[in-house]
Write a structure and sequence with these properties.
By secondary structure, the chain is an alpha/beta fold. The protein has one domain: 3-Layer(aba) Sandwich (Rossmann fold), CATH 3.40.50.1580. The chain is 26% helix and 22% strand. The chain is built from 5 helices and 11 strands. Strands 1, 2, 3, 4, 5, 6, 7, 8, 9, 10 and 11 form an 11-stranded mixed sheet that branches. Helix 3 links the parallel strand 9 and strand 10. Helix 2 crosses helix 5. The radius of gyration is 18 Å and the shape is globular.
Amino acid sequence: MEPKADIGVFGGTGFYELMKEYEEVKVETPYGSPSDKIAIGEISGKRVAFLPRHGKDHRYPPHMIPYRANLYAFKKLGVKRIIAPCAAGSLQKHVKPGDFVVCDQLVNRTFRRIDTFYDGPIVTHVSFADPYCPELRKIAIDVIKELGIPLHDRGTVVVIEGPRFSTRAESRWYTQMGWEVINMTQYPEAILARELEMCYVNISLITDYDVGIEGEVPPVTAEEVMKIFKENVDKAKKVVLKMIERMPLERGCKCGEALKYARV
């Protein structure tokens, strides 16, 4: 019998430190293997599953992450809520490196990722007007404010295919559209969670200014991104820990009813 979990977290190996004891399990899915083994332990009386979306050794670039396997594995374990911190770039001057953004909207600019579990024969159209769980967003915002971390309590993340970074022209376009955050992993992660009726919240850890910001902004490098991300990962762990502690046992949102009116 497989172990069970209530809450899922996408994060690197550093997040395992939140649990005093945990077991690693291999979960098989109809969509192949997840990015890595899943660590399951207890935090504040709740069962929590951790999965590094890129794999422990960062073997999966953003466009090759087995998104469907990752989300299905969480569902198979009983996960109902997902906290999804990620490194991201800023598209606006007022959103500074080191800031956290709890996104409320998403724009998909990826083009070669499988982004649904429902290929037929039952046609399914899931509402995605508001991509992120309102209940989890409120908990995240309250916790981040209490911890004194610079916060933007809303923002649109544009998700690019990767693995390359944007050209200046592409980035300038995203900035002119008024979008705040740029990232490579939020899609299809967020929609797959919705299709499986799981709550999902994103916390973007801003690591850099994207190259389309007006003025002379040097091109971003992977080294710079990881440096700022590592400086902020301890803050992110505190946020995740406090969010888990604060989550009510029962969900008060509609995420668990995503399929109710979606079937044709």
